[in-house]
Amino acid sequence: MILEVLEFGFMQRALIAGISVAITSSVIGLFLVLRRNSLFGDALSHAAFGGIAIGLATNIYPLWTGLTLSILGALGITKLRQYAKIPADATVAILLSSGLALGILLISISGGFTLDLFSFLFGSIMLVSVEDTLAILAMTGIILSIIILLYRQLMYITFDEEQARVSGLPISKLNYLFIILASVAVIVSMRLVGILLVSSLLVIPNVTALLFNKGFKKTALISVSLSIFSVVTGIAISYAANLAPAGTIVLVSTAVFLTVLAARHYSKKKQIVKKLEEARS
Amino acid sequence: MQIVEIDRLSYAYSGNLVLDNISFTIDEGDILGIIGPNGAGKTTLFSCMLGLLDDYIGTIKILGEDIKKKNNKVFKSIGYIQQKKTIEQNFPATVEEIVSLGITITDKTSKEKIALALETVGLLAQKDRRVGELSGGQQQRVLIAKAMVNNPKLLILDEPVTGIDLEMQNKFYSLLKKLNQENKITIIWASHDLDAVNRFATSVACINRSMFFHGKTYEFFENPDLLKAYSESSMQAHMHLHNHTHRG
Question: Is A207 on the interface with B (CB under 8 A)?
Answer without folding.
Answer: no
